[in-house]
Write a structure and sequence with these properties.
Blueprint (H helix, E strand, L loop, with lengths): L7 H16 L6 H4 L1 H33 L1 H37 L3 H4 L14 H7 L10 H18 L27 H6 L4 H30 L8 E8 L12 E8 L6 E5 L1 E2 L4 E2 L4 E2 L1 E3 L2 E3 L8 E12 L5 E12 L5 E4 L4 E3 L4 E6 L8 E5 L3 E6 L2 E5 L5 E9 L5 E12 L5 E3 L7 E3 L1 H6 L4 E3 L10 E11 L2 E8 L5 H7 L7 E10 L5 E4 L2 E5 L2
Helix pairs in contact: 1-3, 1-9, 3-4, 3-9, 4-7, 4-9, 7-9
Length: 532
């Protein structure tokens, strides 16, 4: 099966993995351990290739199911279960990697998840990875390696159950977690893979297991697909398409459209011809035009010269696997109408209360100086060239209405656009450039002027300031409480900071902030330990 085949590059990476694993039995230097970085990088790249290949297989499966759901649904559902279990197992392995790095480096999970292998200081650390993966048991039964092995075995059993008995010998699932590789010390699977292994080796071994999971996933999904794929039309891409009955709808009418999955072959484009096709004679009446086809899609461009309904028809020709040419006629129509109102928020499709929200207003064919723009909830100020600033009060929505003065002096209503109104999100407290619990030195503490706040991941430029907070200093089990109005430390506080000692803790709580909307919001607390 194609899913189980490895490229020469993948085979080379696998061989390097085996050699480096064997070298772990020797007393090797950090320079040799660094070679694992190369292998791990190769495995991770291979995993990405597997993911792309698997996505293509699932896309083919979706297409086959849309064409013939009765025949395909059973195997499609099995493939979806394989996809789900593989995703869960890969997620578990990735979380295990991050946990190993976090505990070895002494950093948070969030930080560990961003570290590159080359930047890990403790990649030669044996103790912490062994403690996590093997635990206090000699055979690893109460370590993470036993849980990992059980998950791999369960995954392998699931895949094996989807293989017909007649195909068991020719469809291989390369997991092999039930038994350890042959070794001189008769070590079980857990001990063989993870006992006394440095961090960089553990990460590489886990990447190898991810590789096995994705490769096995490809093998089984490819196998299930081939069981229902014989004699089908061959497509390599599917895309969602919407075909409306009309692109121009009057107020009060229904919008109707057909939604479906369209399939095409990137390497073999169809032939698309447009004109006045007569299905009775199977020929075009008059002149027809062949379209330029890109990625299976014909590009139909035609100038509009009059208002009203325009109809057109044509054919799409494809070649079946048997070599026979197949012709599919089609008909469509569209309406040509005069321009209409366009109102768009420049940043997003919502307005934030208390902020200046930039908006663009235009009516094609009508100059901006002939437009009168108004809003029912707030104010709107013109900036020129169709640009406006909107400032709304409260939710849940605001309507912008536009009227135009026509050339004959007539005032015509161009329509109304509705926008959602949202409150500005809660800010984030920050102290010494930190937004979560942590540690600071006495020097860093004394250098701070106060507590600040800002909007994190917010699309608008907006200021958030702290207006009051409580501060607790905990020293030798005794807590001193202070209440500060504003965001700056008083002279009394600065004097107290001069007496603080290593090991003391400071806690900021009841942090109140105010944004441009003048609303007071309570932010989360922060705690810091004085480390020196």
């Amino acid at each position: 099966m194609s899913g189980s085949k490895n490229t020469p590059r993948q085979k080379m990476i696998g061989m390097m993995y085996l050699i480096l694993t064997a070298l772990l039995a020797l007393n090797i230097s950090k320079d040799v351990l660094d070679a694992f970085i190369v292998v791990n990088k190769g495995l991770e790249n291979t995993n990405k290739n597997f993911a792309n290949r698997n996505d293509d297989l699932y896309a083919q499966f979706d297409l086959a199911k849309s064409v013939d759901p009765v025949r395909v649904s059973s195997n499609w559902e099995k493939a979806q279960n394989v996809k789900k279990q593989a995703k869960n197992l890969i997620k578990y392995i990735n979380e295990l990697k991050v946990k190993l790095i976090a505990e070895t480096e002494g950093v948070t999970i969030q930080v560990a998840d961003t570290l590159q292998m080359a930047n890990i200081n403790g990649k030669d650390n044996y103790d912490i990875p062994t403690n996590i993966m093997i635990g206090s048991s000699e055979d690893g039964s109460n370590g993470a390696s036993r849980d990992l092995k059980n998950k791999l075995i369960a995954y392998e059993k699931l895949l094996s159950n989807y293989i017909l008995p007649i195909d068991k010998k020719k469809v291989e699932i390369d997991i092999n977690a039930a038994y350890p590789p042959k070794n001189d010390n008769n070590e079980n699977w857990e001990v063989y893979n993870f006992f006394n292994r440095p961090l960089v080796a553990c990460i590489t071994i886990l990447s190898k297991f991810s590789n096995d999971v994705k490769n096995s996933e490809a093998t089984i999904v490819d196998y299930l697909l081939k069981q229902v794929d014989e004699g089908s039309m061959k497509f390599d891409t599917i895309a969602a398409k919407v075909i409306p009955q009309s692109n121009y709808i009057l107020l009060g009418e229904e919008y109707k459209a057909d939604l479906f999955l369209a399939a095409f072959n990137k390497t073999k484009n169809p032939e698309i011809e447009v004109g006045n096709y007569n299905e009775t004679t199977s020929s075009f009446d008059g002149v027809s035009n062949k379209l330029t086809v890109e990625s299976g899609l014909g590009k139909y461009n035609v100038s509009t010269t009059r208002e009203g309904l325009v109809s057109y028809s044509g054919t799409i020709k494809v070649v079946a696997p048997s070599g026979k040419e197949m012709v599919f006629p089609f008909k469509s129509e569209y309406i040509v109408a005069r321009p209409a109102l366009t109102v768009s928020a420049d940043n997003m499709n919502v307005f934030y209360a208390g902020l200046d929200n930039p908006v663009s207003v235009s009516v094609p064919g009508i100059p901006n100086d002939r437009l009168k723009v108004s809003i029912n909830n707030g104010t709107i100020a013109p900036l020129g060239n169709g640009k406006f600033n909107v400032n709304v009060m409260n939710g849940p929505q605001a309507n912008i209405s536009v009227v135009a003065k026509m050339e004959n002096g007539e005032v015509r209503n161009m329509g109304t656009s509705t926008f959602r109104v949202k409150n500005i999100p809660k800010g984030t407290a920050r102290f010494a450039n930190q937004i979560s619990d942590g540690s600071v030195t006495k020097g860093e503490l004394k250098a701070q002027l106060g507590l600040t706040a800002f909007y994190q991941n917010f699309e608008f430029k907006a200021d958030c300031r702290v207006v009051s907070f409580d501060l607790s200093i905990i020293s030798a089990g005794i807590s001193e409480e202070f209440h500060i109005v504003g965001n700056s430390f008083s002279s009394e506080m600065k004097t107290r900071f001069g007496k603080i000692k290593r090991g003391d803790k400071i806690i900021f709580s009841n942090i109140n902030s105010v944004g441009p909307d003048k609303k007071t919001l309570l932010l989360g607390s922060l705690m810091f330990k004085i480390i020196r």
